[in-house]
Amino acid sequence: MGIDMTQVGLPDLSILTWGLAALPVIVVLTLMMGFKMSGARAGVIAWLVALAVAYFTFGGGIEVVASGTAKGLWTTIFVLFIIWSSMYMYNIVDLTGSFKVIAATFTKLTNGNKMLQLLILGWAFPTFVQGVCGFGVPVAVATPLLIGLGFSPITAVVTTLLGHSWGITFGSLGASYSVLLSLSPVEAAPMAFWGSIFIAFGGVITGFCILHNYGKGAALREGTVAVLFLSIVMGLALIATCFVSPNVGCFVAGGVGLIAGSFVLPKFKAYRPAADAPPLKEDPEVAGKSFIDAFSAYIILIVVVFAVYLIAPVKTFLDQFQLGLPFMETVTSFGYAQEAAAKYSALKILTTPGTLIVVSCILAAAYYKSKGFLPQGAFKTAWERTLNQSLGATATIISMTMMAVLMTASGLTTYLAYGIAVATGSLFPLLSPFIGILGGFVTSSGTSSNILFTGLQYEVATILSISATIILAAQTTGSSLSNSFSPGNAALGAGVSGLSGQEGEILKVTLVYNIVQGLLVGILAFALIGLGMGL
Question: pLDDT: is 83 or 405 the higher one?
């Protein structure tokens, strides 16, 4: 398969140039996972490598590298706002003792089964939140909940990173799915159908990855029934919803999963307590405290998010207030261009997730105070904790995002994808998900990955005369699942769990699962295309 790279403004394809384009990614993974270097330091080194490759190999002059770096710095504000606000909210809730009440309630609902608690709050709940508000919020909200239930920070982070990722295509009110339709001529109905099939398949894999991470073989033996039940329930809910309204597919799937997981699954024979099991002991510290009171901060958050995102006139009005930086058009010496922007990556001040978390935190704090739950000096204590917990993640996210956006602005990321497409030929469907994973890794966003590579995937499918719809379904599934394996999301998870500086350990775990997920999705795409489906 031949592609004229001059048409896309990139150097001719060669193994050496492809290796140089991949060098920033190789460097950051090697330093973080091999040498256990902090994400902040590894990110700075990888950014310098990306800068050198962009300047000397891809013809990115001073304007290109300066603009790409500045765009990266600006983009971090959005993510950091989420981290700092969610950590402050977590600390306020923690100081009220509410996590003990939440833990006691879910212990009772699940008959004390920790694995069921993990699947409900680490998989179904993040899926539900992702349905309306993505951008890392499911990880930021669910990770502290799991830690509060007694799970180790690393287990909590990996679980929520995996648990929220599968539904991203049809989450955030369908933002990622909408990109597929807007950037390719595929029809909406078949795209929604095949997309939901692939995403539901990704959900099954995700459930088993969560089990394996939690307890390897023992957890797989105990939890297979639970994962099959939840994946079937959420998968069918997703597919059925996508026939009617794909934009709320993830929201409906997560909601159904939450209800089924909390009230149906614990009644299964495999998860009922033994007849001679002693009754669960009630913690005297939570006696008389209401679950509604304890969970009120997250109930308020859900209500605020839904009120803003689902009431169209409210969102339209609030979205008017935006803050963005102007950037000029940049063009490399090969002709790879980035359009000028009057408000690049505009921050929607009143509807950005960080703002919604702040509003929810204020309302929750007022409610807790009225109930007498907040101890003296809680606001100051929460701020001091947040400061200590979030500084490391802040440095990591800044450096990683500078590297990622610079790679995108100078064409390195696109060049990597074209190289994969040309090298694989008829085997392309097997590796199609990995292009989505590459985009998600570099941008920490499934939507951004689809923006980067929808056109490329469609073009390759057309050249090979295979189903573009199935190839795009594989692309968007890969881009969704990649959110468990991206430095930005790992830093976010580390920041809200007290693991700042250990992002490499998180990525080391999720890398293995992402490779398995990508291979299985690729095999599905290859098999379906081999059967002539999707045309």
Answer: 405
For 372-445, where are the alpha helices, taking DSSP H only? 378-409, 412-424, 428-443
Give the tokens for residue 132: 């309306």
* DSSP code of residue 12: P
The arithmetic mean of pLDDT across residues 378-400, rounded, is: 85
- Give the global pTM: 0.82
Q: How far from chain centre, in Å, is Cα 244?
A: 25
- Tell me how crowded residue 346 is: count the other CB atoms within 10 A of its CB: 17
| Residue 514 near residue 469 (C-beta atoms within 8 A) | no
- SS3 percent helix, strand, coil of the chain, rounded to 5, is 75, 5, 20
Average pLDDT in the chain? 89
Q: Which residues contact 476 (CB under 8 A, 6 or more apart)?
A: 169, 176, 177, 180, 195, 198, 199, 436, 446, 450
3-state SS, residue 342: strand
Q: Decide if pLDDT at 282 tops 70.
A: no
Residue 284 has pLDDT above 60, yes or no: no
Rounded to 10 deg, the angle between the 153-165 and 137-148 helix axes is: 140
Pairwise CA distance, residues 242 & 255, whole Å: 15
pLDDT of 195 reads: 96
How far are the Cα atoms of 225, 292, 429, 445, 449 from residue 168, in angstroms, in the given order? Answer: 24, 28, 21, 9, 12
Q: How far apart are CA 158 and CA 484, in angstroms?
A: 8
Do the beta carbons of residue 233 and residue 256 sit within 8 Å?
Answer: yes
Cα–Cα dist 152/223, whole Å: 19
Do residues 348 and 78 lie in contact, with contact meaning Cβ atoms separated by under 8 Å? no
- pLDDT tens per residue across span 286-305: 556 788 998 898 889 888 88
Residue with the larger pLDDT of the pair 180 and 524 = 524
Work out the average pLDDT over 135-140: 82
DSSP 8-state assignment for residue 13: P
Domain ranges of the chain: 5-530
